Amino acid sequence: MCHNCAAGGVSPGSSRRSFARFLAAGAGLTVLAACTPEAPAGVAPSSSSPAPAVTSASSSPVAVPSVESTTAAAEPPPQVPAPPSAALPRQSSLTDPASPWLVVNKRRPLTPADYVPADLVQPNIQLAVSGEAALLNSTTAAAAEAMFAAAAQDGASMTLASGYRSYGTQVATYNGYVAARGQADADTASARPGYSEHQTGWSFDIGDGGGVCGFQPCFAEQPAAVWAKANGHRFGFVVRYPSMFHPITGYYYEPWHLRYIGVEAATDMANRGISTVEEYFGVDAAPGYS
Questions:
Q1: pLDDT tens digits for 186-218?
Q2: pTM above 0.90, yes or no
Q3: CA gap 286, 11 in Å, rounded
Q4: Which residues neighbour 7 within 8 Å (Cβ) at sequence distance 6 or greater?
Q5: What's the rounded Cα separation, in Å, for the pair 57 and 53?
Q6: Under 8 Å CB-to-CB from 24, ≥6 apart: which residues?
């Protein structure tokens, strides 16, 4: 999650109708990359601003009981559609940090906020970092090893550019941004402590083996990013912050940020053409902090 860029608030049901407006408004914006643990100096603040939430309301006439009736006719409660993930035979928790289906975003903090995975390991893959940033939880590490090997066989060289990030590291990172830019702009560039996927061990950022376009928009065109976007689901990974879905995810396009949700769920998402975990798991959009 190298992120973080804030986005305007739009509900999942209306996000697709709002893309034209967001694309026009965001044409002059620079995608921010804040995965690095140090706060940048002298970086111009983002010019983006949240868009108003789009809501709709409807009313229906109230049924009047007949004179013979002694109780009002009971209307059935509205049916909430099941999320696409409900079709899978095995369900996992969306709130347990140890679950691969955990959804953490600007509206869904980690509990506890200082969570530390119990099984952090260093995967046997090409590393561009050291220390805690080279760690993943054991399940994600094993899947990453298989994915990196398959990518290499297809000629796409990947590196681990940023893995686990502890709560303490995120405190220092976020506070550095606040000191340099103020809180409002810091929230467009760095996740608040306790709200970062990197803290879970389920996500990491990839780089190109040649070191090209690291944490920049042009990374989307590099072989590592192209391969991961097309094949990551085979190993349980999704691009967590896809292009043009910032009204739902809260972050602009990060082609380098991969998230493990399991092969079955990731493949189901790909087959159904669903782009965000918020939509797939049926949780509210998170364009900004509550």
A1: 887 789 999 999 999 999 999 999 999 999 999
A2: no
A3: 8
A4: 22, 48, 50, 51, 246, 247, 249, 250, 251, 252, 287, 288
A5: 13
A6: none
118, 135 contact by CB (below 8 A): no
pLDDT band, very low/low/confident/very high, at 79 (cuts 50, 70, 90):
confident
From the centroid of its chain, how far is CA 261? 11
Give the residue-averaged pLDDT of 278-284: 98
Residue 268, both tokens: 């189901």
Q: The tokens of 12 are what?
A: 């999942």
Mean pLDDT of 140-149: 98
The alpha-carbon radius of gyration of the chain (Å, integer) is: 21
Strand partners, 158: 208
Greater pLDDT, 59 or 144:
144
Q: Which residues of 174-197 are buried (b: 16+ CB within 10 A; e: fewer)?
A: bebbbebbeeebbbbbbbbbbbbb
- Tracing tokens 């060289």 back to the chain, one arrives at 157
Task: Note whether 240 and 277 are within 8 A (CB).
Answer: yes
The pLDDT assigned to 11 comes to 40
Helix (H, G, I), strand (E, B) or coil at 129: coil
Mean pLDDT, the chain, rounded, equals 81
Closest among 45, 50, 40 to 18, alpha carbons compared:
50
pLDDT digits (tens, 9 = 90+) for 112-125: 999 999 999 999 99
Widest CA span of the chain, in angstroms?
Answer: 81
Say if CB 143 and CB 174 are below 8 A apart. Answer: no
DSSP string of 62-92?
PPPPPTT-SSPPPPPPPPPPPPGGGGSSS--
